[in-house]
Design brief:
alpha/beta, TIM Barrel
Amino acid sequence: MSRIAQRFADLKQAGRKALIPFVTAGDPNPEVTVPLLHAMVAAGADLLELGVPFSDPMAEGPVIQKACERALEHHVGLRDVLAMVKAFRQQDSETPIVLMGYMNPVEVMGYENFAKAAQAAGVDGLLTVDMPPEEAGDLVAALGEADIDPIFLLAPTSVDKRITKICAAASGFVYYVSLKGVTGAGNLDVSAVAHKVEQIRKHTDLPIGVGFGIRGADSAARVAAVADAVVVGSAVVSRVAENATQPDKINAAVCGLLREMRAAMDKQ
């Protein structure tokens, strides 16, 4: 059983939902990332989503776009991100890590080379925003050989036929994007999320994570009531940005938010 599957199984047995924070690797500088990952686990994170900096992050709003820019100022690339995961694994062999990013860096490295390097580093899943399942066969095969879960996105506009296709290609969990638009945009309609999650459950037994639009403890708790996981990105990255010139304050700022979310989620 993969680390992702094991973590969701353990949470289900405990009657809890997964909290999955996102940060961009190397933001605001490379020295911050690994200690921040450990701090987030201590604050209640169940899985970690680590963004691979990219120059054209098309799914991201201004907050995460600027995070990518800060990381790229330090020339943080995919191999650097894998080195960060490897460093994290020296102290934590249990918390699942999903890389989130875009296909270009993986294409440049090559699917098999990437999968082998990611496996060696301790990566558990890969979410590539711009890789549709119709074109993902070779990548999914390479990831499968390395026991890495391919994570795919579903949207409010996804119809049943599309949901079936995406769920068939996915493993680990399915990521439902709760809003039309980029990260950090719009207002969350939890009743609409609940309806869509119910629709998705008819097509898969995989856990369903919900992201985009979750900004604080209240929205995290409301989403946790209808989904298996709460993914929080822009709200976390905003805390990083607010303290970018004082990196020693980042862990406390991020972890304060995560503790509030964790407590609210556990009460629902």
